[in-house]
Design brief:
This protein is an alpha/beta fold. Helices cover 48% and strands 10% of the residues. The chain is built from 14 helices and 8 strands. The chain has a 4-stranded parallel sheet with strand order 2-1-3-4, with helices on both faces. Strands 6-5-7-8 form a 4-stranded parallel sheet, sandwiched between helices.
Length: 282
């Protein structure tokens, strides 16, 4: 089976391990993710605050390419990219005059009929039914599933999971043997794109997230966003400075956690690229 795949900039740069784990997990379930040819940046996270027409055009071109290349669905693992693609598709569907203007800018036909799947939706649709049978190393640990800001908001547009207490990743982690904890920060902001300009704020916001997970006994945080992963993993010095203590909870992509459970190797899943390395022993 072949499905369209939009990696976005992060998965080709700072989050190579996410790219590796998504593709490797798909192959384990006989799915080939076919990367869109000639894709461009979607403009996340700031383009829409700088130039609306440009931000709409960047996304419309991506979706038009997917249509041209014959894909009915595309998998978009980055939560920021998924949010931007879904939001622009929605906005263009609501305003025919705006749609005509954007089509004129990109000089490509665009119909808005491609289904956009985030990584959790992809797993639910194409992996979940056969997941239990493939688990060989149950993930027998308490985990905190962290959804962040962009995977479920704005709910009116995305229509994915619950807004305040999403459960989709929790259910998947339970399927591979983990215990998903009930905690208070699963949709709080990690600091997002302020990672470089205001590392102190990222340290505080991400520190609160990690502290709550640690206080409740989580042995790992599970995410589906490269920006969330980067802040929670890479900014650990700023986090530990804010908390005035060291927290060594590893941050795993949902694809990495599932991959470990079905017997994929840490190297294939890119786990050696993390700043805080996983060391979960049964």
């Amino acid at each position: 089976m072949e499905i369209g795949f939009y990696p976005g900039c992060s998965l080709k740069g700072t989050s190579l391990e996410y790219n590796e784990s998504v593709i490797t997990l798909a192959k384990a379930f006989d799915i080939e993710l076919v990367e869109l040819n000639d894709w461009n940046c979607c403009g996340a996270t700031a383009a829409h605050s700088m130039d609306r027409e440009l931000s709409l055009s960047l996304v419309a071109r991506i979706l038009a390419l997917a249509e041209q290349q014959g894909f009915e669905e595309i998998v978009v693992p980055c939560a920021s990219c998924y949010n931007r693609l879904s939001t622009v598709q929605y906005e263009l569907a609501q305003d025919t005059k705006l749609l005509d203007k954007i089509v004129d800018i990109i000089k490509m036909p665009y119909f808005g009929n491609v289904k956009i799947l985030n990584v959790v939706q992809f797993i639910e649709k194409y992996v979940q039914d056969n997941l239990a049978a493939k688990v060989v190393h149950p993930f027998r640990h308490e985990v905190a599933c962290y959804y962040g800001c962009l995977l479920v908001r704005p709910h009116k547009i995305l229509q994915f999971d619950q807004l305040e207490d999403p459960q989709s990743m929790d259910k998947l982690m339970t399927m591979i043997g983990a215990t998903s904890i009930d905690w208070a920060f699963k949709t709080e902001c990690c600091g997002a794109g302020l990672s470089v300009s205001r590392t102190d704020l990222v340290g505080r916001l991400s520190g609160n997230i990690l502290k709550d997970a640690d206080d409740r006994g989580a042995k790992a945080l599970v995410v589906a966003c490269p920006m969330c992963h980067s802040n929670l993993d890479m900014r650990r010095p700023a986090i530990n400075s804010y908390l005035n203590k060291s927290i060594d909870i590893p941050i795993l992509y949902i694809t990495q956690a599932i991959g470990l459970a079905i017997g994929l190797t840490p190297k294939d899943l890119g786990l050696d690229r993390h700043f805080v390395l996983i060391n979960l022993k049964d």
